[in-house]
Every structure is written in structure tokens, then in C-alpha cells.
Amino acid sequence: MNNTYLPYFDGFRGIAIMLVILGHLGFGNFIPGGFGVTLFFFISGFLITRLLIFEYHKNQTIDIKKFYVRRLLRLYPALLTMIAVTSALIFLTCSNASVKPYIFSGIFYYTNYYISFFRSAAPLDCERVFDALWSLAVEEHFYLFFPFIFLFFNKNTRHLISILILIAILSLLIRLFILMFNNDFNQSSLIIYHSTHTRVDSIIYGCLSAILIYKQNSKTYMGILNNKLTVFIGVALILISLLYRDPLFRESIRYSIQGLALMLLLPGPMFYPSDSLLKKLIESPALIFIGKLSYSLYLFNGLCIMMMNEYFQENFFEGVHSAKWMAATISLTIIFSLTSYYLVEKPFVHIRKQFGSNVL
């Protein structure tokens, strides 16, 4: 087993971040920005599980300390930069904003619970810049428990798979429970969309997929992935999850359907021949580069939206904006992201490699 870099997943990260940003730019009624986040979750689960499988195969153990050091070196430099820059700009342009709770919740990864349970019902537009950090909190909470589950159940793959399936089912049941017993649907929707205990299954499906491929060596799963009918079913499930607009469905079963669909669709093309048209598209240099920038793009897009809203006096995340606003926001997001990637993220790559990272 060799824990080599997979450009394929950077290509999908590129697709995911474009969905998210287009949703933020006002195309949410046409572009499934939320599905982009779900795609990020699946990819994270797959890659982290793959890394742990290969590390255990090589060393017969998991170095938990190195795992967390790698995560901190990957996430914190750009995150702290974003929080510092955003806080400074909000202080200069939005003096009545209450920034301190967002700073603490961002640094300590509880933004998802802060915006679901503790902040005011009508936050200022400039405060909502920090909202994107909710998904980082979900992933970080997953990182806190998953290495221990993997290490404890690793020697019995069936038990490991069973535990992960149980977590995914519990996540769905909790969503249903919230919808049944909370009479405020808007609050229920907010909690379900952002909370770790209601969204972690989107990561778990990626974990299961990696285990079936690299640990279980499941010929059955690989056969399913290579079946054309599987592609049809997977695409159909994605379309159903996006087009069926019933509110109760969207806040409950939708995420489970999307996770199962991604298990059917996402890993398959990774094993296609290198001259496959689909694989060439996914691994195109442009998509891979966007994928490498995706973390910084995700962090700074909200800030750039806020800045252009101030400049053009347009509403935050509401409707489709003017062409000038769109061009300026995209350009500024790219500038901030490139700066963050080359001046903040890249300098830590060498250090991360010392702790077992395979990043390029």
C-alpha cells in the first residue's frame, strides 16, 4: 500500500468549491451550494480514512499525536489569518458588530453550534462572514473521535464498518427526532444543517467507501462501482435529492441519499484508465489548481462578499447581484485566496510532510 497523492480528489474539491461559491454569489436557487459542502465532507472522510489505513498498514499503529499535528498545520494557519483579517476589517467598517463570540467559536471550532443555538436571531450582515466556519467545526469534531474508533476497531473490519453505519443511522434518526419534537421548523432547519451530530454522516459515507476499497478489498463494492447501472442509480439519487423540495425530506433523508449516491459515484472514476474522458476532465490542471485553492477560497469568499457589499451597497447573500459586483467579488476572492495559499498555506507543506502528510 502506498499513500500517494491523488489529484483526482483535488479535481472534485475544485467542483465542490465552485458549487459553494456560486451558491454564495446569489445562484442558490439554481446551483446546489449546500451539496458542494456535502461533497467536501465525503472527500474528507474518504481521504482521512485512506491515510489512516495506509499508516496502520505501514506501522501497525496510528500515531495520534502526529495525526493532530498534521490537522492543525493544515487548518490553523489559513484559518487564523482569515479570522484576523476579517476581524480587523469588521472593526473598521462595522463598529456595532459583536465579533468576539465569532472569533472564539472560529478558533475553537464551535461556530456550528454558536450560530445554531446562541447568536441573535437577526445577526448583522458583517457578522455572517464567519458563518462559513461551521463546516470546519463539523470536520474538526469528526477528527476528534474518528482516529480512536479506527484504532480500536481496526483489526475487525466488519465491526468498524458496523460502528460507522450505526453512526450514520443515528445521525439520520436525530434529524428525524428534531423535526418531530421541535415545533419551530426554521430553528430545526438551522440546527440540522449546521450541527455535527446531524451532519457527520456525510463524512462517514466517505469513510465507509475508503474502507471498502482499501481495507476490506471488497470485490463486490468494486464490481458495483464499475457497473453502468450504478452510475444511473447514483445520478438519479442525486437528482432526487436536489429536485424534490419537500421541506421535511430536505432536512432529513436528503443527506442520507446524497451520501449513498456519492458512495456509488465518486470513487469509481478514480480507477478509470488515464485516457478516460471523465477522468481527464476531473484531473484537468485547472480543476486541480482550483481544488488546491479550495480551502482559502472557502475561507475568504464571505469576506470578499462583505467588502463588495459595502462598496456597491448591495445586500448580503440575497438574490443575484449586479455584473460589476459579481466580477469584483470573484476577482477579490481569487486575490485573497492566492495570497493565502502561497504566503500562508504553502510554507507549512514541508513541516506537514515531516509528520506523514502526502500533500504536494
Automatic annotation (TrEMBL):
Cellular component, GO annotation: membrane
Tell me, what is an example of a GO biological process annotation in this record? lipopolysaccharide biosynthetic process
Query: Which controlled-vocabulary keywords does the entry list?
Result: Membrane, Transmembrane, Transmembrane helix
Q: Does the keyword Disulfide bond apply?
A: no
TM segments?
12-31, 37-54, 75-99, 132-153, 160-178, 225-244, 256-274, 286-308, 323-344
One Pfam family name is: Acyl_transf_3
What GO molecular function terms would the record report? acyltransferase activity, transferring groups other than amino-acyl groups
Chain ranges of the Acyltransferase domain: 7-338
Top-rank taxon, per record = Bacteria
Which protein, by its recorded name, is this? Acyltransferase 3 domain-containing protein
Tell me what organism the protein belongs to.
Pararcticibacter amylolyticus
Q: What is the lineage of its organism?
A: Bacteria, Pseudomonadati, Bacteroidota, Sphingobacteriia, Sphingobacteriales
